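job 3f2a | input accepted
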Amino acid sequence: MALKRHLVIFARQPRLGTGKRRLARDIGAVNALRVQRVVLAHTLRRLDDSRWLTWLAVTPDRSREWAARQHIVQQGTGNLGDRMAAVARRLSPGPVVIVGSDVPHIAGDDIARAFRALGHCDAVFGPAHDGGYWLVGLRRRPRFVDPFHNVRWSSPHALADTRRNLNGKCVVLLAARHDIDDGASLARHQRWDRLNDRAR
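job 3f2a | predicted structure (200 res):
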């Protein structure tokens, strides 16, 4: 029997005053909430694909009702690495790709590329320009190796720390992308979208 491919989208319940705090400081809490909702809906729509099973990993855990139409898995407690490791351990056998809900230009082709890489390598990353990553994929065979221990999250060292935990493993890097963390990154995306609209 073929192993399932699992795509997990990590998302915080869109509520005023929670999440996207750096963005809210730059553009206001109401506008940050609007951006969060739009990008999450866009991500769910673009990545819905029969080639993999899509999960929405929600936080807080009691917030299932706002995502009732999705396959839900709870993030649990701890830092980001603790929660990603917990979700990766919980799913049925098969490769797992985890993405955030704040990368507006993510596409199904990105996910397909990641799963192809996991056909011959242990891990795949989509690097972010700030030193973190917008995608992480793990083969989980012959066993799950936790790459998230002692990672300096929200720092320029996050990707390097994670890769260090995979020393000796086969790792593939996808193209670098920006995510939306603050007002500057939001403006960068808006400029890119305007340029693309003019080119069409």
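job 3f2a | Strands lie at 6-12, 53-59, 71-74, 96-100, 123-127, 133-138, 171-173.
job 3f2a | closed
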